[in-house]
């Protein structure tokens, strides 16, 4: 295909891929927390002092009952404040692993780092695609209209197809594989453009190659 016509076809496919990538990168709405049932609410409210019967209040306030409770606390070596704050007659010691630590250690932090890395990779892919379309439209297309160059939109078509598959996943191992393939495909597109322009010695083509190299560098940044 002629250079300008092939580039226009490539740009259209790249723009379609860019729209898909932006939609896939958009954050999902947060899930609303589950609402407590009426039975749960009723059970919690009954534990408050307003639901105690007069007989129950009299029993708690009897001097003998209070003295017995005090003697039990002294025998166990705990103060009343400790019993209230801990909510348990046998609190965990500082060295004893707590329930939330019994799960696989570091799992939450590893998941967070993994998700951060994926978001960063997706962000670089979106930015590189956007910048590539801009350079092709404003710098490369006018030059190809004057100096035809043999180009093929096959890689751009494949790039759009990969992005479409990736948008259907949004997460999981298949999403990560598609994201990697999209990176590699866009990398190939840019590298082929740079190689194709290497035969032209004019300053205008040097400017385009420099812009393409900068896009490639940002795409592959770690």
TrEMBL record:
Pfam families cross-referenced by the UniProt entry: DLEU7
Biased composition (Basic and acidic residues): 71-84
Bias type Pro residues, positions: 27-36
Disordered: annotated segments: 19-111
Protein name as it appears in the record: LEU7 protein
Organism this protein belongs to: Burhinus bistriatus
């Amino acid at each position: 295909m002629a250079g300008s016509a092939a580039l226009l076809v490539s740009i259209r496919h790249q723009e379609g891929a860019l729209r898909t990538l932006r939609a896939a990168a958009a954050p999902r709405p947060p899930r609303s927390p589950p609402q407590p049932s009426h039975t749960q609410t009723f059970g919690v409210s009954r534990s408050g002092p307003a639901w105690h019967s007069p007989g129950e209040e009299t029993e708690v306030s009897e001097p003998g009952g209070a003295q017995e409770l005090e003697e039990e606390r002294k025998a166990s070596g705990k103060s009343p404040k400790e019993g209230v704050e801990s909510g348990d007659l046998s609190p965990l010691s500082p060295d004893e692993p707590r329930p939330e630590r019994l799960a696989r250690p570091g799992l939450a932090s590893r998941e967070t780092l993994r998700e951060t890395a994926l978001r960063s990779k997706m962000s670089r892919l979106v930015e590189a695609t956007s910048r590539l379309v801009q350079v092709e439209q404003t710098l490369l297309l006018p030059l190809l209209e004057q100096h035809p160059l043999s180009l093929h939109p096959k890689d751009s078509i494949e790039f759009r197809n990969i992005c479409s598959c990736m948008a259907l996943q949004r997460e999981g191992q298949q999403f990560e594989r598609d994201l990697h393939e999209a990176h590699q495909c866009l990398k190939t597109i840019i590298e082929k453009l740079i190689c194709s322009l290497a035969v032209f010695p004019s300053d205008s083509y040097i400017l385009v190659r420099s812009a393409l190299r900068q896009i490639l560098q940002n795409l592959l940044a770690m």
